[in-house]
Amino acid sequence: MPIRIFxxxxxxxxxxxxxxxxxxxxxxxHQLANSYLADVVNGLVAAAVTRANHSRLAPIVSGQxxxxxxxxxxxxxxxxxxxxxxxxxxxxxIDIPAEATFDRIGTTVRTAGxxxxxxxxxxxxxLVTRVATRIIDAGAIDASTTGDKELTINLTLSPxxxxxxITPSGEISINGAxxxxxxDWSSTSSIPRATRLMSGVTYGAYAxxxxxxxxxxxxxxxxLRAV
Length: 227
Fold this sequence. Notes:
The chain has 227 residues and is of the alpha+beta class. 21% of the residues lie in helices and 41% in strands.
């Protein structure tokens, strides 16, 4: 089957809302296994799958907020107050279906902590190397009181997968829930639902990159607001 037909078939399934199933991908891989073009085509297939998945997401609308609940791995239960602690960077994955500009990053503090602040940021994420590379460090919100807390940003993102980060200086709670699909990112699996660093992260400005190595099955309500 020609390469273009592979791509068009996968993309059309995404547009139709059928998605790409594991057996279908396995069949494609088997058909390509004996071809010297396998490596090239597999790369094209991966890109086509990404485009198909993006085509199934709701478009980005001005003034709306987007997070891992709406444009990531979804929730297996209704979001509820979920504790997060100092010493960790909590990353939640979000898929951006088309180029969009965002003017706010924020979260909703459900349980405050006296004197606590929480740093927010956006990272590129490599699912193979598990390296998160900083795009912006937006600064810190006041988490000593409850409610919606936002920081002003000016960020344009191309279509792709990103990690929204939050790091509190002390224990607070924000909206969180078990992810609806995917697997914990452990030392033996490479498809994360949500991730966090090992303990020992010093609170402060984000470094240029981190290698993520500790699993967490939750997704969290760190969100971006579209312009």
